[in-house]
Design goal:
Blueprint lengths: L12 H16 L3 E8 L2 E9 L14 E3 L4 H6 L6 E2 L6 H4 L11 E8 L5 E9 L11 H32 L13 H18 L3 E8 L10 H19 L5 E4 L4 E7 L3 H17 L4 E8 L5 H12 L6 E5 L4 E5 L4
Antiparallel strand pairs: 1-2, 1-6, 2-3, 4-5, 5-6, 7-9, 7-10, 8-9, 10-12, 11-12
Length: 335
């Protein structure tokens, strides 16, 4: 007799993707099945079901990042190879792909996943260390059906993210700084936690900005406190007025502010950084800025630490690039 739980809907894209990967592995085989996200030059593993040690010594953990152009999937999307290759080395484009130097690949499956507007989100794909029988290609319609179903669920869930963020902020309205009206440290921590989970689930990028106000502009005369408060309110207003409504701005200390730029990659962070510098300079506000762009293989805490380190470089122009994590941090001159 079928249990009611067998027909209950999935609660999230991540839960549905996991179930699809487990089903495909059990019914079709292949040691490694993945749902991936393409973000710029990165090919990010969002979900992975790995049968064990056959792929490599440590498997392919979720959050792993490869170069998109190195992948078999990049070639599949361009039409250079079939969606199922029972003998991957028989396909020149796959045989020459650099990913084969990192993973032993005898057979390959790959089907695209799309955003609502038709843009490529990522892929549903599989690898096996040994070639597979030609008959496995007959399973392509089934795999494509699962890819379409996942794309539909992904579209609905991403579309609701805007409302989810609004609800999260409405629940935290009391966690604000009395002077500036921005979120306080507790509100900042809560919103960063929620957004980090969202980034890991969908592979979204995010950029973190650390701001520190020049002590000399806070005032030291008999009216210093009032002057300082007015200056901090001007800083808060300028930052808030320069960023998007979806971004998170908070006052984190006496004269420290933070900005979480939602779905903002390294290139976008440079554009936003330039806008912030100009806005602060135009308002005659001396503020040091540090920036770090995070990915799924690094925590927000690590990226925030890099942003603070960049900001503390005392206005020296600095570009630090972590090749292992592909995370960029930028410290800018005091503006």
């Amino acid at each position: 007799m079928q249990r009611a739980s067998d027909t209950n809907p999935f609660s999230s894209f991540a839960e549905a993707a996991r179930a699809v990967l487990e089903h495909l592995q059990a019914s079709i085989g292949f040691d490694l099945w993945m749902v991936t996200r393409i973000e710029g030059e990165d090919w990010i593993v969002l979900q992975a079901v790995d049968r064990g040690d056959n792929v490599n010594e440590s498997g392919v953990p979720e959050g792993s990042v490869f170069r998109w152009t190195d992948s078999y999937c990049a070639r599949m999307v361009l039409g250079q190879g079939p969606r199922i290759a029972p003998r991957a080395d028989d396909v020149p484009a796959y045989r020459e792909a650099p990913l084969g130097d990192q993973l032993p690949i005898g057979a390959y499956v790959g089907v695209p996943l799309h955003f609502p507007d038709g843009r490529l989100f990522g892929t549903l794909c599989a690898f096996h260390p040994e070639p597979r029988p030609q008959e496995v290609a007959e399973r392509l319609p089934e795999i494509e059906l699962f890819a379409r179903l996942l794309s539909g669920l992904l579209q609905a869930e991403i579309s609701s993210s805007h409302y989810d963020r609004r609800a999260e902020r409405a629940q935290l309205e009391e966690l604000t700084d009395e002077l500036t009206g921005l979120f306080n440290r507790r509100g900042w921590d809560r919103l960063l936690e929620a957004e980090e989970a969202r980034c890991r689930r969908y592979g979204h990028p995010a950029s973190l900005f650390s701001f520190d106000v020049d002590d000399l502009q806070l005032g030291t005369d008999s009216h210093g406190s009032a002057k300082s408060d007015e200056f901090l309110k001007r800083v808060a207003k300028t930052i808030k007025g320069t960023v998007r409504g979806v971004d998170v701005v908070a006052r984190l200390g006496d004269h420290e502010f933070g900005l979480l730029a939602i779905e903002c990659d390294a290139l976008g962070s440079k554009v936003l950084q330039a806008r912030l510098e100009k806005a602060l300079a135009d308002a005659d506000l001396a503020v040091s800025i540090g920036v770090a762009t995070s990915r799924t293989d690094r925590s927000f805490a690590s990226s925030w630490e890099r942003a603070e380190q960049a900001r503390c470089s005392n206005g020296q122009q600095l570009q630090a690039f972590d090749a292992a994590a592909d995370t960029t941090a930028v410290a800018t001159a005091t503006v």
